[in-house]
Amino acid sequence: MRLNCALVSSFLFIFVLAGDQQPPSLDRTEKSIITAELPITNWAGAVRLARLQGETISYAAGTFTVPSARGATSSSFNILVGISGYPPCVQFVLNVVITVTVNGNGVSYQAWGQGYNGNVMVAPDWFLVSTGQEIRAIVRALTLTSGLFILINLNTGRVWAEYVSGGIMFCHQDAAWIITTPQSQVTTLPNFHTVTFTAILTKISGTRRVPDNLDTVNIRNQGRVMTDTQVNAPFVIIRYL
Question: Do you know which InterPro entries this protein is assigned to (predicted)?
Answer without folding.
Answer: ConA-like_dom_sf, Peptidase_G1, Peptidase_G1_sf
